[in-house]
Design a protein that fits this description.
Thyrotropin subunit beta, 1 helix, Cystine Knot Cytokines, subunit B, Cystine-knot_cytokine, signal, Glyco_hormone_CN, secreted
């Protein structure tokens, strides 16, 4: 093997571990309340993508803390509030949602992230839909 090939391979492995495809991504959430007449479609950004992780073959030899996998999660976020149309006066018509400003690969924090993908849940409206324009 040529030295150039070996060097390229090593650099690829080093930078491949550091590189990830975790970034803010456009996403539409649908929000509705039982008391309100409409479902609101909100365009926001969430953290999504690929993070490099390593799965050890010696799982029984390592501490559980050493086995945690990195996920694409919020580095910086802010909250916005939308008004759900068609709500009666006795109902609070506001909904607050996160907006990803920047993302990072790290441990999943269940305080503000859903760390498990629930395949049974769908994101759709059962009522007439209104689009939230920001």
């Amino acid at each position: 093997m040529s030295p150039f090939f070996v060097m390229s391979l090593l650099l690829g492995l080093i930078f491949g571990q550091a590189a990830s495809l975790c970034a803010p991504s456009e996403y539409t959430i649908h929000v509705e309340k039982r008391e309100c007449a409409y479902c609101l479609a909100i365009n926001t950004t969430i953290c999504a993508g690929f993070c490099m992780t390593r799965d050890s073959n010696g799982k029984k030899l390592l501490l559980k803390s050493a086995l945690s996998q990195n996920v694409c999660t919020y580095k910086e976020m802010l909250y916005r509030t939308a008004l759900i149309p068609g709500c009666p006066h006795h109902t609070i018509p506001y909904y607050s949602y996160p907006v990803a400003v920047s993302c990072t690969c790290g441990k999943c924090n269940t305080d503000y992230s859903d760390c498990v993908r629930d395949r049974l849940r769908t994101n759709y409206c059962t009522k007439p839909q209104k689009l939230c324009a920001l």
